[in-house]
Amino acid sequence: MIFTDGCIFSGFFMKPFANLISAIVLLVSTSIAALAETPVVQLQADTETLFASGRDLADVKLSVDHMVAPSTNVQAAKIMIDGMAADVKAMAGENAKSAEKLTALKRYLYESGAWNENRPFQYDLDDPLGEKPANRLLQRYLTTRRGNCITMPMLMMFVGQRLGLNMTLAEAPLHVFVKYTDGDGAIWNLEATSGGGFTRDAWYRQKLPMSDEAVANGVYLRPLSHEEATALIASFLVEHQIEAGAFENAIAVSDVLLRHYPNFAYGLVKKGSAYSGLLRREVAGKSTRMKDIPADLKVKADQWYGQNMQAFAKAEAMGWRPQDGQAQ
């Protein structure tokens, strides 16, 4: 059974193995995407460097994008972000307080004016969830100024952090948003897809249903640490590897992310999905009947199935559900 849990979240459930093969055979495509070329060991090493102490999150995002799309001009994008921060700082004025900086940031990004050449950053209603991989690239958002629930909160945070604002990312089902701590220590949700407006937890819970258990366990609505935000940003690598059919690579990257963010429910779901992909490719893609599967492959398939079940079980134990974010 294939399921999608939205925005940057997608994966597969697995059935008991004996029934699984028959079910999967019906789903296998006659063509499989070419495998990513980066060796697993090198890919893991490159992913690990994203977690270097003190590394700027904008640099993390642009490095991830470059790994996915080598045409990404990391330096040019950094210059653009730094320039935006300088413009917002000037708009806010000297000695501006946190609230004043935030007001200027929202105006700069989302209101039309000379400061943004009358081209404000807007929600891309043609791809609001960032389902097209190209639309998940930050440089594309900077160029087109049409974003989604991935790129929009990230850019707001990147610029805000350069202004000295206390901002990080948070997750909701199907969604990413900004958590902002004001000068008095109060924490606010900022919805980048809606002009950076203040949004209550209750609104997210109403619009994007989630279990009480998931909220209590910090799966959703919690400010992420720098390390956790890095893992969330880097999950684009896992998605890319799965989309390329490089399931071994996806698992390898997931392992790195989960070492740094063990309770990353989405990371667990993607890891389970990658094992599902291995089963589809190596078993259903090569055998149409159980008795035709070689003994050594059956052993591997059992292991992959076990890893799939284990990953989903851990995510579900924290309160994650495949129907999260879907109106009942």
Describe the structure.
- Strands 5-6-7-8 form a four-stranded antiparallel β-sheet, sandwiched between helices. Strands 1-2 form a two-stranded antiparallel ribbon. Strands 3-4 form a two-stranded parallel sheet.
- A hairpin with a 5-residue loop joins β7 (187-191) and β8.
- α2 runs parallel beside α11 (247-260), α4 crosses α7 and α12 (265-284) packs antiparallel against α13.
- The radius of gyration is 21 Å and the shape is globular.
- The chain is an alpha+beta fold.
- The protein has helices at 17-25, 40-49, 57-68, 74-92, 98-110, 138-144, 151-162, 201-207, 212-216, 226-243, 247-260, 265-284, 295-317; strands spanning 2-4, 10-12, 122-123, 146-147, 166-172, 175-181, 187-191, 197-198.
- The protein is built from 13 helices and eight strands.
